[in-house]
Amino acid sequence: MEYQEDTLLFSEKTQFILVTVEGIIKKTDAKLFDWKVGGSIYDCHPFFEILKSLIDSFEKEETTYNFPCIHLEENNTEKICDITIIINTQEITVILFEYTSKYRELNKIAQQRNESVLKAKELELKNKYLLDKEEFKNNFITNINHEVRTPLTSILGFVEILEKTKLNFEQEELARIIKRQSIHLNALIDDMVDISKIESGKIQIVDQRFLFVNLIKGFDETYSKLAEKKEIEFSTYIDPNIQEYLIGDRTRVYQILNNLLGNAFKFTEEGSIHLSVTKNYQRTNKLSINFKIEDTGFGIQAENLERIFDRFTRFNEDKQISGTGLGLAIAKNLVNLLNGEIKVTSQPEKGTTFEVKLPFKFEVTKTTSQKKKKKYTLPETKKKFRILLVEDEEATQYLVMKILISQGNFFIDVALNGEQAINYLERRNYDLVLMDLKMSKIDGYQATRMIRNNYGDKIISEIPIIGFTAKIGEKERDKCLRAGMDDFIAKPFEQEDLLYKITKQIAKKAAV
Amino acid sequence: MKLSKKVVLLGHFGVGKTSLFRRFMDNEFSEDYKVTLGVQIKKKVIEMPDGRELSMIIWDTEGHTNIEDTRKSYLLGSHAFIYVFDLTRTDTYQDLSKDIDYLTKNYPKVKTKIIGNKLDLVNEKDILQLFKDKQIQFDCLTSAKTNKNVQNFFSDLAKEITS
Fold it and tell me: CB 3.0 to 4.6 Å from A24: which of A20, A32, A505, B67, for a disulfide?
């Protein structure tokens, strides 16, 4: 290519450089860079070192190479150029096309694009980290729950038994303290499990029809007794325009109100607590209800109000009031789950008011009264019923045996795992199996499936089985039922509940 | 005797190629992310243990999620490629073996080194275990921010490409 120094065929932003194969600049118009004729191109910028390898690889034909978007600097000034290099046998032509402003514009766009992608990745990573942390926490809580509930079951059960023995005043008092502390520990576990379930989205809202008026009456009865004990006033008001039966998640509504009332009672030493339930609005089959819980308790400082619903928040440490610090966090999370609203107002030393708005539905037609828990009695065909307890925990074995033997209607055999249980069932006729779920060798689910599927003998394959574990929740219950169990008891259990479920299963079996 | 070797930094955008480049060239680091457009080229003269001087010409290229999008002319005359990925972003190393295959197949004479950068943001033990489990090959883990392993990596590379 012939380079003509005198012509102005090319713009001011183009520079031509002729270089010898040794790298010496023969000619240049110095329009962009003031590189001197006679100097080495290799000293101009490290980019030009590329020429050495291009010359080395040159064969016979004239060859053109294009290098777009090369940052070249001279005297601290940067120019961004597209560079064309043409090599032939005699010389090398280097053409610089300067596009600094164009590339800087492009740079802005690329910067924005890359930054947004990086930001999204960063958020994705943070989210993943938080989810992992959350999952770890929830698994930890679930495991702790399981590990703590088993010994707690024994403690509570044995204290109940202990209370029924002859105790002197001091021993009675000590037993009461153990019981109170165990109940508190149990409540703490319940709260921790609840909050972890809520936060991990594992709580399902179940809409069911329930006697709403009774729910409020229940609070009236329970908390009136407590108010009497604390020598404070407690009153409730329920708007007569609210339907008797509502459709909603009774359990969660109960939990919310119970937490708020429990909180009010904890922090009110004198004066009164009032629960009022009023209708906000009603449209077709939907209505919104306002629950207001007012107390004349210690109150909360204004600066603490915004943290009131945080987990493990307690503001009255000096007042020696027991509590988990989770109650209000649970209430707030549950209100959110039910698509409701919760707010709090308070004046220190005057009292606090919590207001909760919750949506409900109702049936337009009137319905029959609430289904009562059916009563069961043991069949009169036998004097004693034989129960196989499959349980590896010594304390729980002893507790269940004490409870059942004290009734005078049961013989108990104990198997330590599923494998042993099957051996026992093959050798002896039983009326019911109490099956722990987490055991060595064959666990409770597997043993149940084997009992249901592997025996032609109906005495074995159709024996009532009650799952018996420290794990709680719908999922666990479903798992038990799917494995073929007839019912499920969560530890720690109440004696009455254990006896009711055993009686029910034996009675049902006898009725078949 | 003066030697000159061209080394090209490759990899996805935002993995820290420019940070490594600046750390090695000028011993500087900035938290700000500034996109690289095209290529920046700098030279660093290294004195080798045997007394020779090596001019290491480093080409810091713009990042691409697909190695095949890298401009071919940038790779001409290279003596080494440094493929950099970000230890905190799996998308920057999930196609690592494919990208390395592409480089070794198309540039068989060029040494290819793999760097996992941003070591300061991860737990080294965990990441080593993760890469062991996932059978991810790499040559060095670096932090341009703390300068961990950066100078040693380039010194070793200098020896390797001049031997």
Answer: A20
CB pairs under 8 A, 24+ apart, for A187-191?
A187/A324, A188/A324, A188/A326, A189/A144, A189/A145, A189/A148, A189/A149, A189/A152, A191/A324, A191/A326, A191/A327, A191/A330
Q: What's the CATH code of the domain at A129?
A: 1.10.287.130
CB contact under 8 A, B77 and A50: yes
- Taking phi first (over 0 means left), then psi (-120 to 50 degrees means alpha), and beta for anything else, what does residue B34 get? beta
Q: How many angstroms away from the CA of B68 is the closest CA of chain A?
A: 16
> Based on the domain organization, do A167 and A224 belong to the same domain?
no
Q: State whether A45 and B41 contact (CB < 8 Å).
A: yes
A241 and A340 assigned to the same domain: yes
Partner-chain contact A54 B39, CB within 8 Å: no
Q: Answer yes or no: do A351 and A254 share one domain.
A: yes
pLDDT tens digits along A470-508: 665 667 778 888 889 999 887 777 788 889 999 999 998
Does the CB of B45 have a partner CB in chain A at under 8 Å? Answer: no
Would you call B65 an interface residue with chain A, using a CB distance cutoff of 8 Å? no
Q: Domain check: are A89 and A157 in the same one?
A: no
Last residue of a domain, one of A300, A328, A361: A361
Could you report how far apart the first and last alpha carbons of chain A are, in Å?
A: 106
Residues A234 and A345 in one domain: yes
Is position A380 within any domain?
A: no
From the number of C-beta atoms within 10 Å of its C-beta (0-12, 13-18, 19+), residue A426 rates as exposed
CA-to-CA dists, residue B81 to A473, B6, B43, B88, B138, angstroms: 57, 9, 15, 22, 13
Q: Which residues in chain A touch residue B35, judged by CB atoms under 8 angstroms apart?
A: 107, 110-111, 114-115
Which domain-ending residue is among A199, A224, A250?
A199
Whether residue A412 sits in one domain with residue A498: yes
For an interface test with A, the pick among B32, B73, B94, B118 (most A C-beta atoms closer than 10 Å) comes out as B73
Q: Which domain holds residue A123?
A: 113-199
**What is the value of ipTM here, to two decimals?**
0.93
Q: Does residue A190 sit in the same domain as residue A55?
A: no
List residues bridging with A356 in a β-sheet.
A291, A342
Question: Which residues of chain A does B91 touch, with a Cβ-Cβ cutoff of 8 Å?
Answer: 121
pTM, rounded to two decimals: 0.52
Please give the tally of structural domains in chain A. Answer: 4
Poorest-pLDDT segment among A53-57, A225-229, A325-329: A325-329
Whether B91 contacts chain A with CB within 8 A: yes
Q: Do B38 and A80 touch (CB under 8 A)?
A: yes
B122 touches chain A (CB under 8 A): no
With respect to residue A277, please indicate whether it lies within any of the assigned structural domains: yes
Query: Alpha helices, DSSP H only, in A316-377?
Result: 327-337
Do A238 and A352 reside in the same domain of the chain?
yes
